[in-house]
Amino acid sequence: MSLIRRDFLKLATGAAAAAGTSAAARAENYPSRPVRFIVGFPPAGTTDIGARLMGQYLSDRLGQQFVVENRPGAGSSVAAEFVAHAPPDGYTILLSSVANAINASYYQNLNFDLVRDFAPVGNVMQMPLVMETNPAFPVKSVAEFITYAKANPGKISMASSGVGTSGHITGVLFAMMSGVDMVHVPYRGAGPALVDVVAGQCQVIFDLLPSSIGYIRSGSLRALGMTTAARSAALPDVPAIGETVNGYDAGAWIGISAPKDTPRPIVGKLNEAINAGLADKTVLARFGELGGIATPGTPEQFGAYIAGETEKWARVIKFANLKAE
């Protein structure tokens, strides 16, 4: 081996070792200042509450503030784009959600790629939606709903909190898998949509459990099925839709992502802290109040989950021929 080549290899090896040492040192000292925790939804909603619960736990465990910043817009895509272009140093992270997986196909001209431009850190929580009807509607189960809908194609109105939202797309998936035809009626938020289903203006809605459970318990709405693969401990007598429609699973979810190229040791440290939070009894109890199910795991598992969700919702959006206006 020539002297020049030998010297080059020594330099290359030394540079790699120095880079590894530097990354490990940064992770050991991380975080040394407050972390910006970007949430793509307004304050006080279920997603925002989940973010603040996890942010507070991370602040307490890691000794620096995880400051929640709400940047709503374009179904959370405004927040995602901001984080995608942030420095990959672990000091700007994203509350990623099912909305991001939906938006990857729903919006045609995003300036980022959900899979390519982010480092998955960890899944946090899955939340069921509930398929619910006005009590006067003449069905009491998912099977009865499907039979009625097939006998009355195009005569059932499905309310949602807006075009492209998880409630809308979840309903589209149900229609696709069960073969029913429903008329979509979008509203500006879940509140007015629920009010009109209670009033009988629309017959069915797929809505997040926390905002619906009061109506269900009071008898103002009838719960037919949970959108997640398993039943919810909050409503254990309500079957999963998948018990009737084989393979149906459409829970909402939240997790944490960082810009791509965020050092692996920092991602690992955050993931370890997230998983510790998901084993904490206080955190679990608060998530339970939201109807949420903790979903600990590795960054690799979360990355595979995001890729699967993105692919699933792309099929649904193509089926319904949906495009953001």
Walk me through the structure.
The protein has 325 residues and is α/β, with parallel strands linked by helices. The protein has 2 domains: 34-127 and 252-320, Bordetella uptake gene, domain 1 (D-Maltodextrin-Binding Protein, domain 2, 3-Layer(aba) Sandwich), CATH 3.40.190.150; 129-243, D-Maltodextrin-Binding Protein, domain 2 (3-Layer(aba) Sandwich). The chain is built from 11 helices and 11 strands. The protein has helices at residues 3-29, 46-62, 77-84, 98-106, 142-151, 166-178, 190-198, 209-218, 264-277, 281-289, 299-320, and strands at residues 35-39, 66-70, 92-97, 118-127, 129-133, 156-160, 182-186, 204-208, 222-226, 252-259, 293-294. The strands form 2 sheets. A 6-stranded mixed β-sheet has the order 2-1-3-10-4-11, with helices on both faces. It has a 5-stranded mixed β-sheet with strand order 7-6-8-5-9. Helix 2 (46-62) links the parallel strand 1 and strand 2. The longest helix has 27 residues, at 3-29. It is elongated, with a radius of gyration of 22 Å. The chain starts with a helix and ends in a 5-residue tail after the last helix. The model has no long low-confidence stretch (mean pLDDT 92).
